[in-house]
Every structure is written in structure tokens, then in C-alpha cells.
Predict the structure.
Amino acid sequence: MDNVKKFEIEPQAVPKKKRKNASLDKKKARYGWFFVAPFLIGFFLIYLPMIFESIQFSFMDTSTIPGGGLARAWVGLDNYRYAFLENADFTRTLISSIKNLLFNIPAIVIFSLFMAVLLNQKMKGRALFRAIFFIPVIVSTGIIESIDLQNTLASTQATMSNFSDSTMQSSATAGQQIISLLDVQRFFSGMKVGQELVSYVLRIVNGVYEIVNKSGVQMLIFLAGLQSISPAIYESCKMEGASAWETFWKITFPMISPMILVNAIYTVIDSFTSQSNQVMKFIDGIYSQSKGMVRATAMSWVYFLVVIVILAIVAGLISAYVFYQRRD
Amino acid sequence: MDKAQETVKRDPSLMVFDEKTPLWVKIRYKYLTTYFLGKVVWVIFRLVLLIGISFVILFPYISKISGSFMSREDFVDVSVLLIPKHPTLDTYRAIINDNHYWESLFNTTTLSVLCGVVQMMICSIVGYGFAKFNFKFKKILFLCVIFTMIIPHQSIQMAMFMKFRYFDIWGIYGAIAKLFGSTAGTPAIASLLNTYWPLGILSFCGLAFKNGLFIFIMRQYYKGVPDELEEAAYVDGAGVFKTFVRIILPMSVPMMVTIFMFAFSWQWTDQFYSGLFFKDVTKIRLLTNIVSIPKSLDTEYAAKTVYETAIRNTCGLLILLPLIIVYLFAQRTLIEGVERSGITG
């Protein structure tokens, strides 16, 4: 009898198993919530209220109450009106910063791609060069930037002094010492290229210090991307007799193009949110003035919208040309 | 001509010799070719370029270091460029004694290690959650991560300050306090300014500086980890958490070192948050507060600007020194970690 019963039960075992599978998925999903819980808690309890408050502040006028606390008064679009119409510098700074950025994106992306390809090759002292190239990532943010800034301010104040062109002051502008403008101009005038290109390259050469400093993380991302290209592809290229130049344009470049997109976006975000950005400095300056806190908030929201628009344009432009390797 | 021959023609060094080939033939085939010449030119070009750019990166530090050892006389001496004639440690001594260097070093180390470790753990946990589990709203939540990355922190500067000055969650505590007749303008649990709490809380929620990027990197890394690995652990009877702690975390150490290095060093040199949350220098003094001209150094003479610049640079060097030491130990793992990350589109 027992045997018969068991046989009767067995066909049911199949749907039971299926249900078990489904519940395993659900269980896993629940674990997923556990894992992302810290971010969720922070995002909904702290970040979103902050964003909400910040947007509110941009429509308000605030003043501190002597007893401790903050008095708020609704002023509508006043802060925004101030940003666009009353403050003469805001729009100007914004536009010039955007121009600067549009100039810098290609320079940084091309430079970091080039350096990543170089640093990816096998050679002696590669570890040393890599270590040196990533120093800016670690070092040249925040306080060091501001010290350099203080120094340039101090030295511009003291340009009357005879010692202004002595050793120390030039540390921030080391790039300009290395190659003089004239040399480059002479070098390029021999080639028959457009004047725009010449001035573009000139700007890159002049700002080489800045560009090197800014392209650290991008270089890391490109290196990671280069490592993920299968060596088998290069091997077959070599077998087919492709030169290094051909290999780069036919293999490396298309394979790395998703990275170019990532890097372009990262560059935009990074240079828009970095402390050294002109607009950021300008907003920081406004922040410490009277009534400045709300005005600075309003300005930075305007700025944020501009960033989003530019990000969308850049991402749209580049992603049209990105090649994705189909994976199984 | 078949392919093997063609390849040899391009790169004669691939030519196979037998033992009887005379030496000079070998040498001719190996070195006296355009291919070899091109290679040599490329190697030299590459070396020059790399050394040049390394120089651009290092030169400011070299000049800062040399300036930090100069004495007053060297700044007025035109013949002194990089190597001081009267080397002295006075600048260092003055900064360390007058600007509370050790105290700020201790505070900054505590804060940076705290932020680094917490952010490293939280970002790997959250990244793992986003990479390996399927739950509802996952895509929308991940968009939220990207969103925190894009918003410049200056936009929420004021709100962030207010949040931690009058710390409260959703205003719940405030509402309760008002019910019980609190008279304060903005009732709050506590003011968290001048403590480690604000940055601790931000790190713990994965909202601190560039944490969106860290979560993104970790997610990409964990996506590259094959599912079979975890399935094998599940079959052997490990739960999800045990698998994560025992299998996944040890595997991702290089990536985590990378995240730690970023978080640690960006916190170390950070000014934005330190300026926002640590206004009262007497309570917690951070390394960013030590940049000032020490009183014991007399700067009132001809080369004042240059001298003060050098002093400020020395402050910067003193701030960077511990960081550089940590970097030297971590750099190999850091670069390996990034290489393995497999960040792909």
C-alpha cells in the first residue's frame, strides 16, 4: 500500500519543484533588497529630502533667527531672476565654462586613450610610469588645487615685485615652461593645416598640465577596457598581416568605443562638478555673500539643468558611433 | 606567396634559422631591417614621450620639495633655482609646531580611514546587490545611483548643511517635539556639525563624494563574475550572505583596494565637506586647516610672496606625504584592480 501511495505522489513532485524554483527566485530578490538597503535608506531618508529642500530653498529667502533656526519666506522666482538678470557675471561664466568644457572633452579623451594604449604595451619600467601617471588621480584634488590657486593669486598680486618670475611661482604652470608657443607655431606653420587646428593644438600644449591632471581616471577606465579585449583577436590580426596602425583603427578603436562614451560622460560630469570649475568657484563665491545661500542654490540648479542637457547631447552624439561587440 | 612567408617578410625576426646559419646572416636578418629600425624609433619616441609627461606631472612636486628646504636667503638669491644653497628644515619645523600638524594628521587619518573603509564595504555590498539580484524597480533604483553621481554637491550644499545642523529624518522628530511644546525654531535631534557623523552617515548610505561612481564600478566588476561560482557555493550549502563574505569578497580585494584608495585619498584632500561640516577648528582640526603662514616664521622682507608661496607649498607637501606613502604601497594592487574591473559598455 505504501508503495502505491508513493507512486501517486510522485507526479505531483514536478510542479512542486517548479514552485520551489519560483520561490527561490523570490527569495533571491528579497536578498537583493537586503544588499541595496543601505543605499535605499540613505537615498529616501536623507538624499531625496535634501534635494527637495534644496529645490525649495531656491524659491525662498532665508534668514537665521537669533534663537537658532531658520526663517523661510517664499519669494517665487526671485533668486532665478537674480541669477539671470541682475548678476552680470553668472551667464557669462556659465557660457565660457561650457565653451571650455567642449574644448576639453576631446582633448582629455584623446590624450587619455593615447596614454592608455602606450601604458598598455609591454616595456621596461611600465609599472613605474603607471605609478607616476596615476599620481594626479590621488593627489591633485581639493586642497592641493586650492593651494595652487592661492599661490597664483598671491603672485598675481605681487607681479610688481621683481621676484615674480623666479622659481616657485611657476610651479602651477609648468607646462608652459616646457614648450614655448613659438616653437609649436613654427612647427605647425610648415604643415598645411587649418588655423583652427593649429590654435587648438596650441591650447592643448599650453594646458598640458591641466589635461594630464584631469585624465587620470579616464586613463584607468581605458586601461581596463584595453585589458578586456581578447588577445586572440590581436593574434589573428597579426596572422593576417595587419600592421600596428591598422590593428589600432580596425580592432582597438571599435572595441574601445563604448569606453569612449563612458569617458566622455565621465569627463563632463567630472569637470562640471570639480572644485576647479569656474562656475563652481563663482557659485562658491556667491554662497558666502549675504542672501547668497539661496541664490547660490538657485544658480546651481540652473547649472545642473545645463549639465543634464549637455550630457544628453554628448551621449547622443557619441552613442551613434559606438560599436558593441555582440556577446553570447 | 603564402601567409607564413609574408609574415616573415614583414617581421624578419620571426625567420627560423637552423644551427648552420652563419652569425652575420642571423644578425642581418635580425637587426638590419626596416622593421627593426621602425621598432627602435617607436621605442625611443615612446620613451621620450612618457618621460616628458612624467616630468610634467612630477615637476611641480620637485619644485615644491626643493622650495620647502630653502632658507630665507635662497629666495632672494637669483643663482638658486632648484637646489638650495642653505638647506634648512625651519619651514617644516615651524609648520609642524605652529599649525597643530600631529593633531590634524590624527584627525584626518581617523576620518579618512573611517570613510574609506565604510565606503569600500557599502559600495561593494550595494554593487553586488545591483549586479546579481533581480528585483522590482531595480533599473529605476540604479538610475537613482547615477542621479546621485550627476548632481553637483554644490546644489545641495545648503540643504546638506541644514540637514546635519538640524538633524532629523523626514521632520518626524520635529513634529513630535512640536506636539510636546518645543519652542525652538527648527527642532532637531542634534546638531551633527563638528563631528564625524555627517560624513559617516553619508558614507554609510553610499552618498558621499563620487560614491555613485564606486557603486557603478563594483557593479560592473560583479557582473563579470560568473554565476556558476555562486551556484556552486549554494549547492555546497552556503547561504547568500555566507557566499558573499566567503567567496565574493575575497575575490574582489583588488577592486576594493581601488575603491578604498579613491575614497581614502579624496577624503584626505577634500575641502568641500571639511569646510561644510567642520567649521569650528578648535573642536576638530583637519589637515586642510593647517594651510597658513606660521607665526614663528618672519616673512616680512623682500621676497615675501615667493617665501609665503613656498611655505604654503610645504603645507601641501606635509598634507600629501602620508598619502603618497599609502599610495606607494597600494599602487600595484590599485592598477591591477582597475585592469581586472572589466568595465565595459
Summary: Chain B touches chain A through 115 residues (CB under 8 Å).
